[in-house]
Amino acid sequence: MKVLLFGATGNIGSAIADELTARGHEVTGVTRSGAAARPGVRAVAGNVGDPAQVAELAEGHDLVASAVGPRIGTEDDREVIVGATRGLIEGLRAAGVKRLVVLGGAGSLRTADGTRVVDDPHFPDLWKANALAQIEALGLYREVDDLDWTYVSPAKLIEPGERTGVYRLGGDDLLVDADGRTRISIPDYAVAFADLIDGGHALRTRVSVAY
């Protein structure tokens, strides 16, 4: 499968690129600078917020994936996240590419008491703007019925770790383990992300990933 991946050099994007290439997919990694992405990934420059550039780059690909995110504390979260969302939606429509899988946020997931993760008074201030922008992005995707999108939310804690290939999928509720923890390693998130690409399921919906 030919996959166009935006955000291919970030921590999560790199793991997704590695997982996809290991499975034999032909991956083109898009970054703002066009800098080399990962071994086996063709690198190109592009702006995910520009629908015309997205359309041009997406042409000839079977699927577009995005792991785009702002540099926390140095970029405007809403401008990057919502801008990328609009660019992807409009660009894929113009290119005629239907399938889109994107890195989402955990802030809108529901906790056991029915509140959102982002509404917890202990939610880190540093990440709040990012979470709110992701919530807006998810709302935009949920208005789209002409693209086969999947919004993939990680657990509340996503960090470097082991690739075990083991994970659980959920929906709009925060997944916790038997000890009440909500976490996933970056490599196992990438496994779940790639499985969603390969499986072609969970269309036009949000999926959550955790142990």
UniProtKB/TrEMBL annotation:
Gene3D superfamilies: NAD(P)-binding Rossmann-like Domain. It comes from the Bacteria. Residues 7-192 form the NAD(P)-binding domain. This is NAD(P)-dependent oxidoreductase.
